[in-house]
Amino acid sequence: MATWAVLLNDATYVLAEAGVPSPRVDAKELAEFLCGHKPNPRSLADECTTADYLSLVGKRCGREPLQHITGRMYFRYLELACTPDVFIVRPETELVAGAAIDTARELMRQRLRSTDNERGQGGGVRAIGKEQYSAVLRTTEQGSPSLTVVDLCTGSGAIALSVATEVPGTRVYAAEISPQAFRVAERNNERYGNRVHIINEDALHAFPELEGAVDIVVTNPPYVPPGIKHSPEVQRDPQLALWGGGEDGLDLPRQLVCRAAQLLHPGGMLIVEHAETQGEALRNFMNTHGFCDAVTHEDYTRRPRWTQARKI
């Protein structure tokens, strides 16, 4: 029998030899998944446990995504179910969700200020403390929603659920065309209290009842241009979630921009994830199709990966 310290070191070595980008992290995650907790490095693993662990490591050496092996993935403050039927969420999408969350919070503050002014209280949110602000948000959540957010091409529901759980008072809608991905999104939504209204429908035609009334549209759509060479892990993602169509991969994103223009009210915000080569083309399209002030932002690696614009 070997200690977990030895097993983790051996697994890290073979994972690195197989080309896995984060061998030590993956070795630890597989051990924690198998044991249900972080194993003590000094403790001994019996033969059965060792065999099971080496089996999991072998799957990862074959470049099966870690999230498919464990059936879970992490996104901001969420733990989400993951299967081969859904796109695996990645760090840059957390920034996209964060932009939607920050925008929603700012809109909430503005509306609270407006409400205070109408009541003759002046000062607005700046005059109340954090606890009082949270109390107002809880009250708003229990009453009529103050903000409407739509997530198009929701996949696992990661963005929609992040907005719904981090910004009380929002009414969040999400659309997913794949029946298989939709079922995973439903599981994740149920886990967090069914905070999102999710439908299994083409995002280009979803939510006609909301046209002209939405505050924020956010989307991480299929946008990969043709001819891009993927890592083995990305090749395991559903093809429907990858390719954007057309010579530049922007056929579907452009259609979603037009759909967002129908859903948003004047002044509403659109936030779109895209490839690092697509920012300029997407900004130009937004600025000539119902939007203004299009700005592209960088991800953690300083690559231009998402753009936001305001509805005219």
TrEMBL record:
Record SUPFAM superfamilies: S-adenosyl-L-methionine-dependent methyltransferases (SSF53335)
Ranges for domain Methyltransferase small: 145-224
Listed EC numbers: 2.1.1.297
First-tier enzyme category under EC: transferase
Domain Release factor glutamine methyltransferase N-terminal as annotated: residue spans: 7-71
Keyword S-adenosyl-L-methionine: yes
Database matches in CDD domains: AdoMet_MTases
UniProt superkingdom: Bacteria
UniProt-recorded Gene Ontology molecular function terms: methyltransferase activity
GO BP: any one term: methylation
The reaction(s) this protein catalyses: L-glutaminyl-[peptide chain release factor] + S-adenosyl-L-methionine = N(5)-methyl-L-glutaminyl-[peptide chain release factor] + S-adenosyl-L-homocysteine + H(+)
Pfam families, alphabetized: MTS, PrmC_N
Keywords per UniProt: Methyltransferase, S-adenosyl-L-methionine, Transferase
NCBIfam families noted in UniProt: hemK_fam
Name of this chain's protein: peptide chain release factor N(5)-glutamine methyltransferase
Originating organism: Actinotignum urinale
Origin organism lineage: Bacteria, Bacillati, Actinomycetota, Actinomycetes, Actinomycetales
